[in-house]
Amino acid sequence: MVQSGTLLTEGTLEVGKYMVSSAQKSIRQGIGAAQEMLQAKTLVDVMAAQTRLTKTGADEWVAGSAKLAEMSAKVVDGACALLTGRVSAAIRVLSRRRWIYTKGLGY
Hints:
Helix content: over 70%
Distance between the termini: 25 Å
Order of helices and strands: HHH
Strand content: under 5%
Radius of gyration: 25 Å
Number of helices: 3
Number of domains: 1
Largest sheet: none
């Protein structure tokens, strides 16, 4: 149980770091785009900068979502594997001792 809790905690920290890093990157891109728009000479230049920012943001959102899902699945799979192993071992021990049958649970 402690190992799975540790794995979940470490995995959650990694996911959190990734999310903070992604947010920082997005903010930097937004600031860069705002500066580009402020320096634009024409409305067409402003719209081009906005279009680039929107496209980049959408592309990174899709990639980031996939990465986040992958990271989360890896953490949950690892924690569940540890727990499944412990539960399976406990069931084997209990079955050998016939604890389930002597307590009248009827399994």
